[in-house]
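Record 1 of the preview.
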Amino acid sequence: MPGALPDEESGSTESDSLIDRGHRNVKRFWDGFIDFAFQGNILQIAFGLILAAAFTDLVKSFVSDVLMPPISIILPINRNMEEKFAVLRAGPNFNTSTGYNTLHQAQDDGAVVMAYG
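->
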C-alpha cells in the first residue's frame, strides 16, 4: 500500500506531509547550529574579536593623544602632524609654485597622495 510502507532511507512513512518533513529538517539544522555555535572555539573567537576591537581603540587613542604631541614638538613641524602628506601624482589644477596647502585640497583636486601623518 502506498501510504503505509516505511521509506528505507529516511525511516518515515510516505504519508508524512511535506510540512512535517520541513519542520524536522529545520529542527535538525537548528540543533546542529546550536551545537556548533556553543563549542568552546567559537566562543573564544568571539571573545578575541571583542578584545581586539577594544585594544585597537586603546592603541589608536594612545598614539594620537600621547605619542604624537611630543613627536610634533621634537621634530620641526609647524602644523598638525595628522595633515602630513606627500603628493605622488598631482591633480589637473596643481600649481607648481604653491603646491597644495592641505590634504583635503589635494584630494579634492584628484591628486594621488600618501597621507603619512
